Amino acid sequence: MKKDKVTIYDISKKLNISAATVSRALNNNPKISEKTRALVAKTATEMNYKQNRLAQALKNGRTNNVGVIVPYINRSFFSSVIRGIEEELTPQGYHIIICQSHEEAENEIEQLNALLNTQIDGIFMSVSKTTQNTDHIKKAMEEQTPVVFFDRKIDVEGVSSVVLDDFKAGFMATEHLIDQGCKKIAHLSGDINLEIYKNRYEGYKADLQKYDIEYKDELVINTSSKIESGMQAIDELWKLKDKPDAIFSAGDYAALGAIQELKQRGIKIPEEVCVVGFSNEPFTKYMELPITSVDQTPLMMGKIAAQVFLEQVKGDQALSIEKKVVLSPELFIRDSSSRKILNLSDGV
Amino acid sequence: MKKDKVTIYDISKKLNISAATVSRALNNNPKISEKTRALVAKTATEMNYKQNRLAQALKNGRTNNVGVIVPYINRSFFSSVIRGIEEELTPQGYHIIICQSHEEAENEIEQLNALLNTQIDGIFMSVSKTTQNTDHIKKAMEEQTPVVFFDRKIDVEGVSSVVLDDFKAGFMATEHLIDQGCKKIAHLSGDINLEIYKNRYEGYKADLQKYDIEYKDELVINTSSKIESGMQAIDELWKLKDKPDAIFSAGDYAALGAIQELKQRGIKIPEEVCVVGFSNEPFTKYMELPITSVDQTPLMMGKIAAQVFLEQVKGDQALSIEKKVVLSPELFIRDSSSRKILNLSDGV
DNA sequence: TTTGGAAAAAGAAACGTTTCCTCTAAGTAT
DNA sequence: ATACTTAGAGGAAACGTTTCTTTTTCCAAA
């Protein structure tokens, strides 16, 4: 069906040498004389030879494809991480196959199996919120396919990960709010079963403690990453006698919902209530009232994840050590929490 | 290196039948007796056999991988189209390799060649703004690799496309503004060399004509898809003696910039000036002043592009007809242009 | 002149499928 | 009982590489 491609045999016939020699010449094998190598190279380009990556992959077991599994591709955070991975891996000749789990463990498992089946050289993933079981990950490891977690990990022996220091992020965000003079800081948390949300929460608590501010359970509301969820949280918080003077949300969408609801109630931001979000989604910057948010350095995260992967496959020795990288968050301070002088370090 | 996989030979040995029979049984070839087929199927699952897609691909020339080339992966529009493609193609056993051109023709060519080299079964692409030459597309066609353009196309014989009716979109948007009572409608256009922007512009002009409103060149400003670009456009427009009372922007980011600049100048939206954007980026909905925008039905676009592709590869006959699909835009009317009663059909 | 040995190249198997062709055994028609 | 058909299965080549092993070539040392 497809147009006939030129193979090393065509080259070998034309030059009256063996296909083996052609292959070696093209691969710069030192056993080949410089003369032959040059001749082969020249002829190859002349004949418009293109290596068949399939045959090559079949022979040596490496496809030069890697898979990425994320909950959603159209979340700014994830697409930026993917771009980071791409920037590191494309120059090395890798191709990236992207899959979405839609936050469903079932899909995640399916996608992972499909990737393994398609002979991927490695897998990058951010586990879905509903993932509990680690069997699929172990299966990948058994097949000697390196897995690198980013952002959301799950503990599996031998699996490397690149994550944010979420504890520090929670700590920083809270510290910033306290620095603005806030005393009654509420926290909109995500599902505490996910490490990342747990850590943000712990960072929040730790910073309260540092400043001898009493931790109150009633100020912590579990939210999803939906705008409505943030609105409901405000609804609930404003039923309290002692209302908060700050909101630290573990997600930008919930923060946005909270802000909309607060405005609705005529509450002034940041004068009466300061708000900090999480993820530095693009919209946080574009709002009429730009939202302070924690940046997870997604580009960096992707690049480092890619580097970790490369180390694992380059290291011919099977010493592929489990590597745990933790990145530092950056707080982008914007109007939603700036009671003091205008902060110049606003992200662009 | 990799753990030994079980092959059809292992199955054939175990059952004392030939590998050919195993292959046929697994592929539901009618030449195989029901008994044998069942036995093979059972044994295959028992032995945890997984088909080697590489070997299969090498043999029959199809990889079941398709490539997608977009300018940027983290634009809501593009990631949604990709998701649409994915939803159609994943159930068919395809995998999707995603590449970014970063709006550079050079990258686009490179990525396309890499995809061809990696033996892709088809290519979906939205051409970069800087693409002029069509040689790379022709090359793909020569290699019998179907190409489907979406949104941004370029004319190449035999290449199918799925695009928005941008003329209609421009017409609709303008009509809506006129309907709000606007008489002096400015247009923030993209690069008119790109078909999509040209068509939006033509639609705008056509609607003005329909209502006998004089077209004025000075009301059309060329902008990029940057916020700043929208601000500058307002800057320029407000130097005119006769200032516009509406803005139809061919991009949401420029619309956002325009709104910010208008507010800066104390101009009331929508009372004094109505604004309509294009693309229905998520942020348009989240703004304090939600922005009216044209939705390009990206999910649908992706799905249809996938269907067009499937038709081309399924139709064994080489009759692969060039197919041109044009989708209808939807206008999501929001506060930035609603002078009349609150529109209930606001997108969610 | 022979021999040893390095350098260069050739031969052939292997990767795991699919599929064309051939063969066997059984069933059917004569 | 014989010849003919056909369902079912096997053999082997092919897809395009890579690489292990073997062979050839060539030059210098004995």
TrEMBL record, chains A, B:
The keyword Transcription regulation applies. Keywords: DNA-binding, Transcription, Transcription regulation. Residues 6-60 form the HTH lacI-type domain. It comes from the Bacteria. InterPro entries: HTH_LacI, Lambda_DNA-bd_dom_sf, Peripla_BP/Lac1_sug-bd_dom, Peripla_BP_I. Gene3D superfamilies: 3.40.50.2300, lambda repressor-like DNA-binding domains (1.10.260.40). It holds the Pfam family LacI. PROSITE patterns: HTH_LACI_2 (PS50932). GO terms for molecular function: DNA binding. This is LacI family DNA-binding transcriptional regulator. It comes from Christiangramia antarctica.
